[in-house]
Amino acid sequence: MEQLQQFAKIAFASTYSFALKAQNFHWNVEGSDFLEHHQLFEIIYNEVYGVVDDFAENIRKLETYTPASLSRFNMLSKIEDETQILLPQEMLRELLMDNEKMIIILKKTYDAAEAAGKHGFSNFLAERMDNHEKHGWFLRASLKGN
After folding, report:
1. Please, are residues 135 and 99 in contact by the beta-carbon 8 Å criterion?
2. What is the pTM of this model?
3. What does each C-alpha distance from 64 to 8, 56, 58, 60 come to in angstroms?
4. How far is CA 19 from the centre of its chain?
5. Model confidence over 40-91: pLDDT tens digits?
6. Dihedral (C-alpha) 68, 42, 125, 127: value to the nearest 10 degrees?
7. Integer Rg of the chain from CA
8. CA–CA distance from 55 to each of 2, 26, 35, 66 (Å)?
9. Comparing C-alpha atoms, which of 54, 51, 105 is closest to residue 77?
């Protein structure tokens, strides 16, 4: 159970960081395809932020505390900050790489949840992986021809 709790905290912090990065790109994207990219990043960050509370509550059901500070998120997250203003295609590529990291993190957490018999949590994680697969499709499609 301890391993699942740790994986869940890493996945949660990474989820929060991923959403923040997508929002950063939403706010700061520029260029001829501005509106398309601006809207894509908004779709992604809204979907991810939309599950943060459910994710936190799932962690509490594991009889542990949910990380809830920027310093704790920074310590746990596997998604690195982006402090530069990137070109739109670089934003898409970086978010796609981070999205693929998210799928791996969620899969490890899913496997730990299944091993611990926490099938409700593993169902939640399976849905998260499916949503990240969709985000990956959107990001890959947006990079085609560039």
Report:
1. yes
2. 0.97
3. 10, 10, 10, 5
4. 6
5. 999 999 999 999 999 999 999 999 999 999 999 999 999 999 999 999 999 9
6. 150
7. 15
8. 17, 23, 30, 9
9. 105
Residue 145, pLDDT > 80, answer: no
Residues in the chain: 146
Q: What is the mean pLDDT of residues 92-110?
A: 98
CA dist 14 and 11 (Å) reads: 5
Q: How does DSSP assign 125-146, residue by residue? A: HHHHHHHHHHHHHHHHHHHTT-
The neighbour count for residue 86, using CB atoms within 10 Å, is 16
Six token digits for residue 5: 């709790």
50-53, long-range: CB < 8 A, 24+ apart: 51/15, 51/128, 51/131, 52/12, 52/15, 52/16, 52/19
- The domains found in the chain, sorted by start residue, are 2-143 (1.20.1260.10)
Cα 24 from chain centre = 13
Tokens of 56: 């936190």
